[in-house]
Amino acid sequence: MTRVVVLTTALIALLVVLGSRTAEPPADLAVYNGNDVTTLDPQRMSWIPDMRVARLVFEPLVQNDALHDDAVIIPAVAERWSVSDDGLRYTFHLRADAMWSNGEPVTADQFVYAWRRGMLPDIASDYASMFRFVRGADEFFAWRVAQLSRMELGESEYSGGDPLWAATLEKFDETVGLRAEGDRTFVVELREPVPFFLDLCAFAVFSPVYPPLVEQYEQPDPSTGRLVRRPGWTRPPHLISNGPFEVVSWRFKLGMRLEQNPHWWNR
What percent of the chain has a predicted confidence (pLDDT) above 70? Predict the structure, then answer.
């Protein structure tokens, strides 16, 4: 099994003091990451150290080939895709052997779920603007902001947070150009042609997340309707990911240990 250790500056200093003493078996590869990771929530990532680890732990629809001079787009979770003649509709076909680290399949509706998270003002993604090329994303974001403000002012048409959240999900489905057609087909409709859209899809914030896990830590507040986030799902041993590696330990400011994901399709 391949093991990777991601080192931070603090850990390197500690190793100088302690020498080679360690309770863990030696890694096959040690990588210096500069600084510690701030989050392993794909939709919340914004720092380069986060993105480096994200490429090892999560897998989006496509990837930029790091071994090619032009970083060309190559298949990842999507084994193939097509683009409509007008450049407004992308249809991604997910590979049947794309799996989460718990052995469950990666499905199209999980991409819808993750991209919706990225569009929600509740999540406060630094890269939320990257989703605005999707048809209806701006309208949905503005509607959600307005509804949360009305709820806080006591002017909402909804009786509480749960009805507002139900209306939010309905508004998303009605407005935003994202849909799953079965388990393995993910359709994206854009508001205008975007020549670099596939490069966006390779960015970490467009990676899927595992809804049954996230929903244990992320629920709408019953009085305000705003999503309340607890970050526990992003840390081992809870984190479920779909990339070539999974995180088995993470010591803040010291380092992170990754091991090969036995369920990754390209292992």
Answer: 90
pLDDT digits (tens, 9 = 90+) for 137-186: 999 999 999 999 999 999 999 999 999 999 999 999 999 999 999 999 99
Find, among 3, 37, 35, the residue nearest to 22 by Cα. 3
CA neighbor of 31 nearest in space, from 12, 15, 18: 12
pLDDT category at 20 given cuts 50, 70, 90 is very low
Instruction: With beta carbons less than 8 A apart as the criterion, state whether 79 and 59 touch.
Output: no
Side-chain half-sphere exposure of 56, counting CA atoms within 13 A: 23
**pTM for the structure as a whole:** 0.89
Q: Which two tokens stand for residue 168?
A: 């939010």
Homologous superfamily of the 3-260 domain (CATH): Dipeptide-binding Protein; Domain 1 (3.90.76.10)
**Higher-confidence position of 206 and 33:** 206
Torsion, Cα 246 250 254 256, to 10 degrees, reads 0
User: What's the one-letter identity of residue 209?
Assistant: V
User: Containing H/E element for 251?
Assistant: strand 245-251
CA distance 186 to 184: 7
What's the sign of the alpha-carbon dihedral 48, 49, 52, 56?
Answer: negative
Q: From the centroid of its chain, how far is CA 94?
A: 16
